[in-house]
């Protein structure tokens, strides 16, 4: 056991094991021995070239900015419990969340479907609204600071990173921040504001849709140059979310979407076209859209499903039942519940990854998981959107009818209305 792992902070927080490291320090799994609960502890390390005066400023800023988010109580922001000074540096004690980050999910699974990105974006807008109303600017919103704990989307590191004071070039020439996600005005040396957080949100959602942030280049200076001199690239996989993404990535902060307008555009994208418009476009009836999206789902994404969402009434709350059956083959006996379920999915092998949600003003996520071989899920909701990431790995029944098995690596979307 290392010396650090034997350390007990403030006589109560014991370091258990290292979780990960970043540019600003180390995150530890810890245990609060006073309250007997698991905690996450962030050890902040100072750059070695800081002067003594800069170190004093750093300590004061850390303590000041840790107190502010500690007052926030919302489902979408990680809870801060304590800040202690030990071994000459600050340690931030936080809620322990056993969940992957959005960054890890993008690295593991690639671009996410627009409807899931919409769910993430809506939760992050709520988190930012809570913080901004309390006078707190995050300053470092990026996929690695977004945790996905089932249906819960959690924003972490509110003002706690050393880079939170200013994302600009320091005297020593090192960029203190996340250049791929920093707003143009902040990169140019201006003070971070709620509008700059909204730019970072746009870049984060762009990365979730496209697999990379809009201005990412091989190094910091190339990224900053692209941010300053190049036009914002249009997202290719955003579907109906495109107006939200492009509005948040407006380089001029005065023309950038406000929080209220971002919420409005996002909810319009999630809800689909208005009824009057739907009546004049009968080609978007349910079966026609399902036929169309079969060949174009990768480019249409939520743009196609949103048209269907708009034609439906609100369905009941979520429920999913796990079932099992023996052979994972399309010729095998079907799992129970086929005749009464809207959707049934059974894994042919261990690569059957699914994302199932109920559309509406707020998307309800029913499942986001990879099933084990022979494992099955059945859903009874009358309105469902489903994404099957590898169509060859899953057997699918829609309203009692078994669908053809797709090719290996082929992604299929199902938009279902049983009303």
Q: Which radius of gyration do the C-alpha atoms yield?
A: 23 Å
Average pLDDT figure: 78
Distance from first to last alpha carbon: 60 Å
Helix content: 25-40%
**CATH domain fold name of the largest domain:** Transferase(Phosphotransferase), domain 1
Instruction: List SSEs in N-to-C order.
Output: EEEEHEEHHEEHHHHHHHHEEEEEEEEE
Number of strands: 17
Total number of distinct structural domains: 3
Q: What is the level 1 CATH name of the largest domain?
A: Mainly Alpha
Shape: globular
Biggest beta-sheet profile: 6 strands, antiparallel
Trace the largest sheet across and list its strands: 1-2-3-4-6-5
Low-confidence stretches: 161-176, 274-331
If classified by CATH, what would the architecture of the largest domain be?
Orthogonal Bundle
Quickly count the helices. Answer: 11
Indicate the structural class: alpha+beta
DSSP strand (E) fraction? 15-25%
CATH homologous superfamily (4th level) name of the largest domain: Transferase(Phosphotransferase) domain 1
Notes on the structure:
By secondary structure, the chain is α+β, with helices and mostly antiparallel strands. It folds into three domains: 4-95, Phosphorylase Kinase, domain 1 (2-Layer Sandwich), CATH 3.30.200; 102-271, Transferase(Phosphotransferase) domain 1 (Transferase(Phosphotransferase), domain 1, Orthogonal Bundle), CATH 1.10.510; 278-417, no CATH class. 30% of the residues lie in helices and 24% in strands. The protein is built from eleven helices and 17 strands. Strands 1-2-3-4-6-5 form a six-stranded antiparallel sheet, covered by helices on one side. A five-stranded antiparallel sheet has the order 9-13-10-15-16, with no helix packed on it. It has a four-stranded antiparallel sheet with strand order 12-11-14-17. The longest helix is centred in the N-terminal third of the chain and has 20 residues, at 114-133. The chain is globular and about 70 Å long. The termini are far apart. Its EC number is 2.7.11.1. The chain crosses the membrane at residues 284-309. GO terms for molecular function: ATP binding; protein serine/threonine kinase activity. InterPro entries: Kinase-like_dom_sf, NEK_Ser/Thr_kinase, Prot_kinase_dom, Protein_kinase_ATP_BS, Ser/Thr_kinase_AS. Pfam families: Pkinase (PF00069).
